Prior knowledge:
The protein is an alpha/beta fold. 37% of the residues lie in helices and 23% in strands. The protein contains 12 helices and 14 strands.
Amino acid sequence: MTRRISIVCADMDGTFLATNKDVPTRNLQALDLLARLGIPFVPCTGRPVSAVPAELLEHPATRFAVGSNGSVVYDVARRKNLRVVGMDKPRVLTLYERVRGVEATFDIFADGSVYSERARYDAMGSYGIDEPSLAVLRRVRRPVDMDVPAIVERAVKVDKVTCFWHRPQDRDALATAIAELGGFSCAHGHPKNFELQAEGVNKGSAIEWLCDHEGYDVRHAIAFGDEANDLPMLTAVGDGVAMANATPEVLRAADHVTCSNDEDGIAQYLFELLS
């Protein structure tokens, strides 16, 4: 008898997607199996929902999506947001003023898009970010000829801020300013960034809210992840699964470990569990 599963959630980069950002065929086949069994699949990502690969958003198993590290919960079938938790705009602007001289991006996730000051966007290629990630960052972000205060003023809701840093001293300056100001939920979705949401908002809180809202038992949910921003999700569900390529802290916190993202780890875990 297969174990009861209410819902399956998975991070995208470093987890469901291969390192080169391709969608593995076997992982799609695992989603085919979920669809046949009537088990919903939820992409859970630091990206905006619009940047989730189309193959996943259009797959019949995908019922919901979580974007901006839990700030956005999206109903795929009805094509509408179920929940958006905005950040405190004055706090975002105060942080911006404190780190304005730091060599880092200050990307604003707002109203379904990601906006970057053009000069910071143009400088990203010199930060030592791996090429597959850099290609996604450039594709997802919209460089604009406005500064952050103007971007924030125009936004209806700011749901996330991401800072990719250049040098260790830039990382340290960002970390100090974020800690001193407080009032943010902060994690890492990449070795060279800080990802900020409203305090208390993360992938775990989003999955708990979704399960409560839609009637899924979170104790029978499975979640897959590899980075620190996945930890709240892995510990919120009944079965938190780390990829073999996960960070040490994620590996320690997980209930189980599967193969790496380049070895179709999600597919292997689900096929073994559900066959």
